Amino acid sequence: MTNSPPGLPIAQSLALRELSRFSRQPARIVAAVATPLLIWGVLAAGVGGAASGAGPGVSYGAYVVPGIAAMSVTFSAIFAAMSLIEDRASGFLQGVLISPAPRWAVIAGKIAGGSLIALAQGLLILALGPALDVPGLTVNVQGLGLAALALLSMSVGVTALGLALAWVVNSSAGFHGVMNLVLMPMLLLSGAFFPVASSSRWIAFISDANPLGWAVRSMHSALGVMPTDPWAWAGAAAFPAAACALAGVVMRRRSAPSPKPEPAQPSPA
């Protein structure tokens, strides 16, 4: 009887496959960099010198830098989840699932590949923040390191959550609906683009319970935009663990739905 192949090399191969797929899509790379910078420029210039609500001397441009990094991570996680649906439609996913590869290796490989891509995009935004000389943004090695840790937690957590959601739908159109219902409201209500302290009480409550809000507030505190919030850091550390556990439960106990067949074309008369 042959032994099952070890899971770690399989997870590494799947992660490298995600990175290779991303590197072969120049349009996606350009969009991943240009879109967040464009949105940051529009928001920073549009709001201009308006107070961010985070504290004296902190511009809105400084406040929104972690938010733009969070947006980049969220969009990247959406693309990672879309790749799962593409793998299912092409038959690649079914081939992996019926192979001797352990299911945990498939889950870990997809999460690792998508998280690395999301983290790289978010780190690029954080690195460009100091280069743009944004007023009110405290930049030092310790602050950037802590912000990178918060961004890592968000990258793993959002990627795992996106893959769990993509696992239960069987079409790209269906996943877009799930994305608009779950991921986008989480981003908008995370405090990434406006301070929740001055918002309605119910919005502040949702932001306090929002996993993305924990990571965003952690990045804000790491970069000196807001005071340190130990509870936010605790939540940012717990989010990726909970999201990976959810992805593991969904992807291990539930079989992947078959892709929807294309509608039959009428035969010519």
Explain how this protein is built.
- The protein is 71% helix and 0% strand.
- It has 269 residues and is mainly α.
- Helix 1 packs across helix 5 (103-131).
- The longest helix has 31 residues, at 60-90.
Topology, element by element:
Layout: H1 7-23, H2 26-47, H3 60-90, H4 92-97, H5 103-131, H6 141-167, H7 172-181, H8 183-188, H9 201-208, H10 211-222, H11 230-253
Helix pairs in contact: 1-5, 2-3, 3-5, 3-6, 3-10, 5-6, 5-11, 6-10, 6-11, 10-11
Mean pLDDT: 81
Number of strands: 0
- Count, helices: 11
* Net shape: globular
- How many domain modules? 1
Share in helix: over 70%
Unreliable segments (pLDDT under 50, ≥5 consecutive)? none
Strand content: under 5%
Features:
11 helices; mainly alpha
Q: What can be said about this structure in brief?
A:
The protein has 269 residues and is an all-alpha fold. It has 11 helices and no strands.
